[in-house]
């Protein structure tokens, strides 16, 4: 009796798990399926599940509807450039916050924490004015420079640097290593897991970012992929869902692929903020 | 002769001593400023692209200006703020933002809490479902917005097809003033609930197991364990999520811009979208910066509250 | 190879003196052990010699050269840390060669030196491994090799064996001693373990509360302690201290193995040449070859160490007899030893009489 009740509950739970999983995964599947359908099939009601014939040219149409190679390249340049800059500024700052005692340390670290909390949407207008004063609007610099230092990165690296035992640093000092050298050859390699975590977080965040490029760019040479994809809709009048979904897959697939291979890292990267 | 040599030696060594003193002083100075050198690049970026803009936007909010001609800027005092609060449209925008924020936060955290209690288990399938629930969080809002526009298409969308399949009438979704805001809320909750769930799970896993073992030895019923142990122990996590979710809900922009453009009939026009339109499309720089300052005030208050509570620690640990 | 001299060296932390005006000469080529209870300033002293802490006052010389203002990397010293402090992300080879590279050796020179040293300490097969893939003993060897390869004038070691298990620790003690003989350079070794100090050092510096209590060779330290602190710190179990007969301002000490324990039933005759105490055995520890008795006597609790033949039971009434020649006399107020034991006690007996 009890055994049967348990199995029944197990079945119900499995069904529930499947349902919850589907609510979050099926929309992506639907994106994928739509991307391969013909136009008439898209506008069929009730819709078909499986494409009647697989239309690979939807991707070609999407790709050739704008300078997508430029968009992808820009997106990559921006995300990678931001990451490099954030590491160059973040590693020394985190090292100083973690390892030195100096006047004003708490206050300066407090400023960093404030920067962690307040999002870009609050101050995009004055930054835009700054950028136009410097003539940087509609350049990749306007997309990269405002994110040149990451409060989150400094915070993460600082935690990681604080865990390095003093003796290891002292051993390096006895080995005649300069502080700068200790930072890059001892501390940074030891913080590798955190660096990977932060790198994934930063890259994904800026690869996906829509708001900032929308504000700062107005020509195709400097637009990034999310902007290009969103213009697909405008260009096609919001009707060619198969082409639009095909375009979106270009944006989504790399991220889903990374997620597939580095799930643990990504989840800890995003969830780490809570600690 | 010998005396002279000795004197010579003395000056030489005195000289050498003086030099080492100087190098020593220089070295000490360098060691003192070293930490500042290390934090300067990062703080310079924060200064130029974060703290200065905060001051600048406050300055701008007391002026009449537009992006069309940045040289023409005129002091108007509080005029922008009075204009904003007298404007029924802006009051509506604030109201809509508030409704959106409250519903998104309540739903996003509430659903996540139950999902977390349920999914916090070791078996592989639970990990898989956790990953599935989380996956929308790392996808660009652009794609999420466009995908849901397609799902919510009133004529050919999958959602209405499913409704019809179970015998319900199709829904108007984004095309009606009554349902557009709700649609945006649904999209936001769908995207964000996975993050909240995983943060809750991390919080649950940090509760020491022996507390539960002690409770079960005391024959505590499950609901009392939940209300007396789990929820109090989760309070720091819960508070963190409340603040983070509230701040990010106030920033809603991408979905509005792509899915509704604030419509229909302004029913989904919210704060950041309003600032964007005023500043970038209507060239009302003053109004836009005054609205930015109001947003800054809201976010700043939340941040302050967060730091205060973090200091006191809503903890039982 | 160099001698190390400390002149009036002090160290303050937050206004608190942890090292108080240390004067110490560490002879060239010696194996000097700094020993004392935790918090006595021995590690701080070592770290000041290394340059990891700045001396608040005084002067430190390594081979005639004042080093107070030299950074650690320029002092020609090497240090082995308690928890090895290996660079976890580098291979064994890189761990050993890191210091050489920072001193401007070419890759070729490094390779020759590293391979040579790896051969000496038996690490040759493990050069490509990471520290996490090594056993505790092997990590210890890497730490040693990393120090040795720089051929420093002075080796500094901060409790380097305390993380090893007992068997390995004994083995490493022997190896370190022979290594010292082989290299002939100056070793300064910090430990809280007096057994380690006694077995390894040729000069032992006993420290307490930031001050040097005594500097001496191991056997001198044991046989001729300068004061109560050294007398009780060196030797295990510790020296027994009892009130001196007739003199309020003095105390007597004797080592547990110098006392004779007899059953109270056996008639005892007072001895002019011995101190006699009555009491009963509180507890007994059998250590194998020796037995320790804790005896509650009319002069307080004492420990007596005997061989294991003819055991006495706990609770038995006993006599404890200590030959006067084995008694040390200390000033109660200062803790200083007053005179050579025999004479001091004799005179006292003549003066006041114990019997």
UniProtKB/TrEMBL annotation, chain A:
The keyword Nucleotidyltransferase does not apply. Residues 72-262 form the ABC transmembrane type-1 domain. GO terms for cellular component: plasma membrane. It is found in: Cell membrane. One of its GO terms (biological process) is transmembrane transport. The keyword Cell membrane applies. PROSITE patterns: ABC_TM1 (PS50928). Signal peptide: none annotated. Keywords: Cell membrane, Membrane, Transmembrane, Transmembrane helix, Transport. It is a multi-pass membrane protein. The chain crosses the membrane at residues 12-33, 71-95, 107-128, 140-161, 182-207, 240-262. SUPFAM superfamilies: MetI-like. This is ABC transporter permease. It comes from Brevibacillus borstelensis AK1.
From TrEMBL, chain C:
InterPro entries: AAA+_ATPase, ABC_transporter-like_ATP-bd, ABC_transporter-like_CS, ABC_transpr_MalK-like, ABC_transpr_MalK/UgpC-like, Mo/tungstate-bd_C_term_dom, NA-bd_OB-fold, P-loop_NTPase. Keywords: ATP-binding, Nucleotide-binding, Transport. Residues 4-234 form the ABC transporter domain. One of its GO terms (molecular function) is ATP hydrolysis activity. GO terms for biological process: carbohydrate transport. GO terms for cellular component: ATP-binding cassette (ABC) transporter complex, substrate-binding subunit-containing. Transmembrane segments: none annotated. It comes from the Bacteria. This is SN-glycerol-3-phosphate transport ATP-binding protein. It comes from Brevibacillus borstelensis AK1. The lineage of its organism: Bacteria, Bacillati, Bacillota, Bacilli, Bacillales.
């Amino acid at each position: 009796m009890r055994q049967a009740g348990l199995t029944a509950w197990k079945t119900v739970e499995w069904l529930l798990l499947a349902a919850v999983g589907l609510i979050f995964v099926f929309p992506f599947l639907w994106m994928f399926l739509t991307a391969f359908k013909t136009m008439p099939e898209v506008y069929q009601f009730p819709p078909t599940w499986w494409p009647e014939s697989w239309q690979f040219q939807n991707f070609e149409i999407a790709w050739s509807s704008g300078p997508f190679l430029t968009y992808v390249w820009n997106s990559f340049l921006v995300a990678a450039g931001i990451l490099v800059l954030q590491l160059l500024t973040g590693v020394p700052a985190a090292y100083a916050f973690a390892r030195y005692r100096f006047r004003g340390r708490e206050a300066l670290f407090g400023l960093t924490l404030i920067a962690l909390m307040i999002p870009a949407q609050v101050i995009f207008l004055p930054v835009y004015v700054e950028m136009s004063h410097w003539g940087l609007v509609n350049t990749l610099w306007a997309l990269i420079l405002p994110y040149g230092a990451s409060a989150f990165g400094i915070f993460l690296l600082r935690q990681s640097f604080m865990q390095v035992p003093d003796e290891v640093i002292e051993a390096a000092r006895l080995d005649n290593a300069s502080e700068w050298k200790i930072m890059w050859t001892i501390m940074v390699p030891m913080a590798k897991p955190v660096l990977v975590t932060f790198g994934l977080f930063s890259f994904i965040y800026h690869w996906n970012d829509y708001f900032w490029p929308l504000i700062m760019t107005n020509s195709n040479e400097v637009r990034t992929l999310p902007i290009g994809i969103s213009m697909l809709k405008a260009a096609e009048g919001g009707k060619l869902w198969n082409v639009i979904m095909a375009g979106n897959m270009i944006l989504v697939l790399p991220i889903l692929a990374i997620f597939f291979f580095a799930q643990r890292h990504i989840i800890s990267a995003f969830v780490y903020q809570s600690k | 002769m010998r005396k002279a040599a000795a004197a010579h030696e003395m000056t030489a060594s005195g000289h050498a001593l003086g030099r080492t003193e100087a190098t020593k002083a220089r070295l000490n100075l360098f060691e003192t400023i070293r930490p500042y050198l290390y934090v300067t690049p990062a703080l310079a970026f924060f200064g130029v692209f974060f703290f200065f803009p905060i001051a600048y936007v406050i300055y701008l909010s007391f002026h009449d200006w537009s992006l069309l001609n940045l040289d023409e800027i005129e002091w108007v005092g509080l005029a922008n703020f009075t204009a904003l609060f007298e404007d029924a449209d802006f009051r509506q925008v604030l109201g809509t933002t508030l409704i959106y924020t409250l519903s998104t936060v309540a739903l996003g955290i509430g659903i996540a809490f139950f999902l977390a209690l349920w999914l916090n288990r070791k078996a592989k399938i639970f990990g898989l479902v956790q990953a599935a629930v989380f996956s929308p969080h790392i996808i660009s809002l652009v794609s999420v917005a466009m995908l849901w526009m397609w799902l919510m298409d009133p004529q050919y969308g999958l959602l209405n097809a499913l409704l019809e399949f179970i015998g319900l009438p199709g829904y108007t979704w984004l095309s009606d003033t009554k349902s557009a805001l709700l649609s945006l809320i649904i999209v936001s909750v769908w995207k964000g609930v996975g993050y909240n769930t995983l943060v809750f799970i991390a919080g649950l896993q940090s509760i020491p197991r022996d507390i539960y073992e002690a409770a079960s030895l005391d024959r505590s019923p499950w609901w009392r364990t939940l209300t007396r142990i789990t929820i109090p122990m989760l309070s720091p996590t819960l508070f963190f999520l409340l603040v983070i979710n509230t701040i990010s809900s106030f920033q809603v922009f991408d979905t509005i811009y792509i899915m509704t453009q604030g419509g229909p009939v302004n029913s989904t026009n919210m704060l950041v979208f309003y600032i964007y339109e005023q500043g970038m499309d209507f060239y009302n720089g003053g109004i836009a910066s005054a609205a930015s300052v109001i947003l800054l005030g809201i976010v700043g208050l939340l941040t302050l509250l967060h730091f205060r509570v973090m200091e006191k620690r809503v903890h039982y640990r | 190879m160099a001698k190390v001299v400390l002149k009036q060296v002090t160290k303050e932390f937050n206004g608190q003196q942890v090292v108080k005006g240390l004067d110490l000469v560490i002879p060239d080529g010696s194996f000097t052990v700094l020993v004392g209870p935790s918090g006595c300033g021995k590690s701080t002293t070592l770290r000041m010699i290394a340059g990891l802490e700045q001396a608040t006052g005084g002067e430190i010389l390594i081979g005639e050269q004042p080093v107070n203002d030299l950074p650690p990397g320029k002092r020609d010293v090497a240090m082995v840390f308690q928890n090895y402090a290996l660079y976890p992300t580098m291979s064994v080879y890189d761990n050993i060669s890191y210091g050489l590279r920072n001193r401007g050796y070419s890759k070729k020179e490094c390779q020759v030196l590293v391979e040579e040293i790896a051969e000496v300490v038996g690490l040759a097969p493990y050069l490509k491994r990471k520290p996490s893939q090594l056993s505790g003993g092997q990590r210890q060897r890497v730490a040693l090799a990393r120090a040795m390869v720089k051929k420093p004038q002075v080796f500094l070691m901060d409790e380097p064996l305390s993380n090893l298990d007992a068997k390995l620790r004994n083995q490493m003690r022997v190896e370190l001693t022979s290594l010292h003989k082989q290299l002939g350079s100056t070793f300064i070794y910090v430990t809280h373990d007096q057994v380690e100090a006694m077995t390894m050092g040729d000069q032992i510096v006993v420290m307490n509360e930031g001050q040097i209590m005594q500097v001496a060779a191991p056997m001198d330290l044991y046989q001729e302690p300068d004061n109560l602190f050294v007398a009780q710190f060196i030797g295990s179990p510790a020296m027994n201290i009892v009130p001196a007969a007739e003199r309020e301002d003095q105390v007597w000490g004797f080592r547990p193995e110098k006392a004779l324990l007899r059953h109270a039933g056996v008639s005892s005759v007072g001895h002019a040449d011995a101190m006699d105490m009555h009491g009963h055995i509180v507890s007994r520890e059998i250590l194998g070859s020796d037995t320790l008795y804790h005896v509650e006597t009319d002069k307080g609790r004492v420990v007596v160490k005997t061989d294991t033949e003819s055991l006495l039971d706990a609770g038995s009434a006993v006599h404890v007899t200590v030959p006067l020649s084995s008694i040390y006399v200390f000033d109660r107020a200062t803790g200083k030893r007053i005179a050579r034991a025999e004479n001091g006690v004799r005179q006292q007996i003549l003066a006041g009489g114990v019997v």
